[in-house]
Design goal:
Layout (H helix, E strand, L loop, with lengths): L14 H32 L3 H25 L7 H19 L1 H6 L5 H12 L15 H16 L1 H8 L6 H6 L15 H25 L4 H12 L16 H14 L3 H9 L3 H4 L1 H21 L6 H16 L14 H10 L15 H19 L8 E2 L2 E2 L2 H31 L6 H12 L20 H15 L3 H5 L3 H4 L2
Antiparallel strand pairs: 1-2
Helix pairs in contact: 1-2, 1-3, 1-6, 3-5, 5-6, 5-20, 6-7, 6-10, 7-9, 9-10, 9-11, 9-12, 11-15, 14-15, 14-16, 17-18, 18-19, 18-20, 19-20
């Protein structure tokens, strides 16, 4: 990274010292998680939900106390090495999900540990998977916490910590490295702390604007705030059992627009505030827009037929394409009831994802572009074996190691998809459940891409409550792996990373 001196090991490089530095980071993350619970407790108070307010307040107190203990009493501030940065990121998502279960467990809203962990993990990883048949039955405070997990997870609580807490020397840069999902980490300013602040400025601003627009429609203020939280985070947790189906076409079009914005790079949004032409100059944004438009056209073509209202078909097609490609997971139509060819197409859209630097999951648009360019060059090499070819994405010439990294990522992604499908089917069979291959495969694709709904029993009209407990733990792990872009998690299991 330019302008930053290289990481050097401190004198204290033992396992105990590394544990104290990771405890320092983990304590900050847990403390932030506890503070984020306080607004949910306040919502319960405002709605007269005394027992829920006490439960969420107790969860916040326990979480803040645990975080403070790890942060100030056990942890030690120090320079993070690369391996410690990866370790801190993986650890952060695990401890967030673990402590995020407390409001569910203490309030009795979700009594089972596996179910509560699944719901909390789905929230922080901005996956719309849920074990709740009817979210509207939850107390308002718990429902608000559920949305808050997605809003906090959307831009990453780690980046938030870097923005509002003192930088940990170079450790701040190393901590953000696994959270920078592009081929090159994109900074708006030389200082990472200032970059994080500006990204959060855009994130909070767009959330506020969407909440106001939704409130002007047919949503209550509570519904508008919750849906703004879970739209800008591309999370997809709704307040109703029917997702967005029961709201007006105005509300649905507003959400389409903000889902599309959330699937684009927030750094691009910030630059476009001063120079709107930045959108036109971005090759990735052009490809992202083309994929969305192509998805809409194909779905509209599949929906049109005798007796089908064109306006309704266009709206449902646009909403579905944008929601799935941006990995938001909201629905206005049960695509599980569409013709089989369209169902297969929707599952295919789950592998795309939004732009690098967005809150979306999936493979990401820039990787799709690089893979297609690399495939094109490979075909040309077959025709011209002695030719010299350059792979470009937009105007940028791509280094060979970037192309190889993208190809490796896609290989691992598909390997995890196939392995996860096999394991979920195996666990389901041992639990004497009767989930079909369509349900298990779409569940894995949805979890790995942080999307939410799939096909079969977990379709838009279903939920994940029927999965065995072991299957829920497996899918929770896949959500975290997908959210962290695979490599940071896989590296934690390599001997080279931890070798002194």
């Amino acid at each position: 990274m330019s302008g930053v001196r290289p990481v050097t090991r401190s004198r204290d490089t033992g396992a105990a010292a590394m544990g104290r530095r990771l405890s320092f980071i983990g304590g900050q993350v847990v403390t932030g998680c506890g503070v984020a619970m306080l607004p949910a407790a306040l919502v319960s108070v405002l709605y007269g939900e005394t027992s829920s307010a006490v439960a969420i307040g107790s969860a916040a107190a326990i979480t803040i106390a645990a975080g403070t203990l790890a942060w100030h009493l056990i942890g030690t501030k120090g320079v993070l090495t690369i391996k410690e940065g990866f370790g801190a990121v993986g650890m952060a998502w695990l401890v967030m999900s673990a402590f995020g279960t407390l409001p569910y467990l203490l309030s009795g809203s979700i009594p089972g540990i596996a179910d509560a962990f699944f719901e909390a993990t789905s929230g922080f990883t901005t996956t719309a998977s849920s074990i709740l048949p009817d979210p509207s039955a939850l107390p308002r405070g718990v429902l608000f916490w559920r949305s808050t997990t997605q809003w906090v997870g959307g831009m990453s609580i780690i980046v938030l910590s870097i923005a509002v807490l003192p930088l940990l020397g170079i450790g701040g840069a190393q901590l953000a490295r696994p959270e920078s999902p592009g081929p090159v980490s994109e900074r708006l300013t030389p200082r990472l702390k200032e970059t994080a602040k500006r990204l959060w400025f855009v994130y909070v601003g767009l959330t506020a604007v969407e909440a106001i627009l939704l409130w002007l429609g047919d949503m209550t203020l509570f519904q508008a705030v919750n849906h703004a939280f879970t739209t800008m985070s591309t999370g997809g947790f709704g307040t109703e059992s029917t997702s967005i189906t029961g709201f007006s076409s105005y509300t649905q079009w507003v959400m389409i627009g903000f889902m599309f914005l959330a699937g684009a790079s927030f750094a691009l949004h910030y630059r476009a505030l001063r120079r709107p032409g930045e959108y036109l100059r971005s090759a990735e944004f052009s490809l992202y827009s083309f994929i969305v438009f192509g998805g809409v056209v194909i779905i509209v073509g599949g929906l049109l037929g005798p007796g089908v209202e064109i306006a309704s078909a266009v709206r449902d097609a646009t909403f579905t394409a944008v929601s799935i490609i941006t990995t938001t997971g909201y629905t206005t139509a049960d695509f599980g009831a569409w013709r089989p060819a369209l169902q297969v197409f929707v599952v295919g859209l789950m592998f795309f994802g939004g732009m690098a630097g967005s809150t979306a999951g999936g493979v990401k648009t820039y990787r799709i572009g690089i893979l297609s360019k690399a495939a094109e060059v490979d075909l040309r090499r077959l025709v011209h074996p002695r030719g010299v070819f350059v792979i470009r994405f937009g105007k940028d010439r791509l280094r060979e190691e970037i192309v190889e990294s993208v190809q490796s990522f896609f290989l691992f992604y598909m390997f995890l998809f196939m392995t996860g499908t096999f394991l979920l089917s195996f666990l389901d069979a041992n639990a004497s459940e009767q989930l079909d291959l369509i349900t298990t495969a779409s569940a894995v694709a949805s979890s790995l891409g942080n999307i939410g709904p799939g096909l079969g029993e977990i379709g838009p009209a279903g939920h994940y409550a029927g999965l065995p407990g072991s299957g829920k733990w497996l899918l929770s792990g896949l959500m975290i792996i997908g959210r962290l872009e695979i490599f940071p998690v896989l590296l934690l299991f390599t001997r080279d990373l931890w070798r002194r």
